[in-house]
Amino acid sequence: MAQSPSIQAPLFYAPSSSPLVTRPIEQLRILFRQTLRITIHDRRVFLGTFVGTDKQLNILLVNTDEYRIGTDYEGNLNGRFVGQVMVPWRFIRRIEARAGNGSDSDDESMYM
């Protein structure tokens, strides 16, 4: 008679109150649903809502606008809506998040 496989809990399952959840993971959770500005190597900037990462640490944004910056674009900062994007980590030069409570009152301190 064949034995049925036993069902086991995942090895890395940890509720949010568990000591296995590290400080970097908690800091990442704080960023969920926050607006991020991501600059990549080819001088494009993505401004969108952070919704997660994957196993390879690529960044997933929704409701995203794409902007091209630099001398090639002669100061034209008109962006285009691109929706949902996945930005490969190896292309990322900088990631910025809203500082403080996210109020838009001071553009200079909008991002950290």
Question: Could you explain how this protein is built, in words?
Answer:
The chain is mostly beta strands and 112 residues long. 8% of the residues lie in helices and 36% in strands. It is built from 1 helix and 5 strands, in the order H-E-E-E-E-E. Mean pLDDT is 78; it is low at 4-13.
Query: Widest sheet: strand order?
Result: 4-3-2-1-5
Which parts are unreliable, with pLDDT below 50 for 5 consecutive residues or more? 4-13
SSE order, one letter for each helix or strand: HEEEEE
Class based on secondary structure composition and strand pairing: mainly beta
- The helix tally amounts to 1
Radius of gyration: 19 Å
Proportion of residues in extended strands: 35-45%
Q: How much helicity do the residues have?
A: under 10%
Secondary structure tally: strands: 5
- What is the mean predicted local confidence, pLDDT? 78
| Inertia-based shape | elongated
Calculate the terminal CA-CA distance, rounded to whole Å. Answer: 63 Å
Q: Strand count, sense and closure of the main sheet?
A: 5 strands, antiparallel
Structure in a nutshell:
The chain is mostly beta strands. It has one helix and five strands; from the N terminus they run αβββββ.
List the helices and strands and how they pair.
Layout: H1 23-31, E1 35-40, E2 44-53, E3 59-68, E4 80-87, E5 92-97
Antiparallel strand pairs: 1-2, 1-5, 2-3, 3-4
Question: What distinguishing features does this structure have?
Answer:
single chain, 112 residues, mainly beta, five-stranded antiparallel β-sheet, 1 helix, elongated
